[in-house]
Amino acid sequence: MVKSEMAESEVEVIHSWSAPRSLSTSLMYSFAQRDDIEVLDEPLYANFLRVTGLDRPYREELLSKMESDGNKVTTDIIFGPGRKKYRFCKHISKQRLQGLTGDLMKKGKHFILIRNPLDILPSFDKVVPPSFYELGLAELVCIYNELRETGKAPPVIDAAELQQDPEATLRGLCDDLEIPFQPAMLKWEAGPKEIDGLWAPWWYKTVHKSTGFEKPRKYPEPFPFSLYNLLEQSLPLYKMLRRHVKKKSSLLSSPLPTPDLPVPANEKLLAWVGDEIVPRDSAKVSVFDSVVQGGDSVWEGLRVYNGKIFKLEEHLDRLFDSAKALAFENVPNRDEIKEAIFRTLIRNGMFDNSHIRLSLTRGKKVSSGMSPAFNLYGCTLIVLAEWKPPVYDNTRGIALVTATTRRNSPNNLDSKIHHNNLLNNILAKIEGNNAKADDAIMLDQDGYLSETNATNIFVVKKGRVLTPHADYCLPGITRATVMDLVVKEQLILEERRISLSEVHTADEVWTTGTMGELSPVVKVDGRIIGNGEVGAITRRLQAAYKKLTEGSGIPIPNYVKT
């Protein structure tokens, strides 16, 4: 053999971290096919057994044949010289114990391999009984966070992606590791293999039959429900890591790219769900909740100005009225809801320019179905606070179109109940979106003006301010506030039926709502309103409304103006 082929030199180490039963051995076989890599199968295993004292069928043999001093393994074996450019080290996360040299994590390139506990747990107990500790998912999360804090967040790949599209997944991983992909990684000869650890006869029987990454069964085996509690404990950790997977396969469709948020600061926020505050991605309700089963919920929109919640008492009055109209039971009391709102805002540091979506569902059901008799857990309270400026252009104005979808009649579903079943409004909004308008006007059953899909509406003609009766439309709290301001500004207010032609020929039009405040309308169905600019009365009332929001509202406890 040529001397240069025998010479050993410093190698670049690639660390693979995973839980057991995660296709880590298949991935080790894949890397072993490369012509520039040598592999080590769980080099820290003996140290793990020595330190923990855990029993395994092969414990004594392993301790007698493998180096069990973890720091020696790290220095002399993992980072020792080699004959190839790279060394691939397959690690099981729980084998990273306290006391190991810091070089283990500081040196080399690291990546994390994850697998859904639904797929791991059914086959886990072939050698040892499954447990939270044996799974090692908590340690896997710790490894990810420790590496991320050094400024080098490790790539994360999911075993499901390896099975569905091994070449694309391996190419992506190689790119992340800054090594060239080699097609040889896709196939290998059946085992056993010389690179196997001596524990292979107990753990590797299935993988020894493989010659590549195989697609999973179309239909998995039934889950052993004796492990249900362990699944509940481990699944959130898997999901936490899966958020960092670049490419995710889906049973239903190809995943969409991550969208940009209207307000990027809302990517990280805290929401109240049920009886606790949770991060955005954990803010979920049960599939048995009535809001999922039938849109059976009531809600309010609230705005925060200068450390105060505007019209909080009025919104709570309407929330309780809506809940009573729908015969909700076990409703939280007023003080409890206020405390949830205050705590959510304080935790988020939201004291101005914020909007709250306050929802109260009928609650979780004991079984899926329509009947409220199934709702035996009490109501579910949701406080969703976001950084959100007014959602319309209140300086230059907005454009509306008239929808063919008519507003619900009180004969069908009374709009005075502020409920979450918004399909009537959503159908109108779809028409508005298709027409590239900001919103859509909805008429009542007789063809008279009702409201838009999201707001109340006002019309000015010859100095008179007109707004529809609250027969079909929601009697909005911002609507009532603006009506009071109209009177205080000594303008003439008329609440009456308004035909669509009166809107088209109006001098001014505006909409009102908590989310958008007072929004001027400059075009309706292609007709220019007035001279196409924000009208004088509109500006006058906008100023009055702004002054009112600056000086009134329920103070948020502990708010200190900066």
Automatic annotation (TrEMBL):
It comes from the Eukaryota. The gene is LOC106775861. CDD domains: D-AAT_like. This is Branched-chain-amino-acid aminotransferase-like protein 2. PANTHER family: AMINO-ACID AMINOTRANSFERASE, AMINODEOXYCHORISMATE LYASE. It comes from Vigna radiata var. radiata. Belongs to the class-IV pyridoxal-phosphate-dependent aminotransferase family. One of its GO terms (molecular function) is catalytic activity. One of its GO terms (biological process) is carboxylic acid biosynthetic process. It holds the Pfam family Aminotran_4.
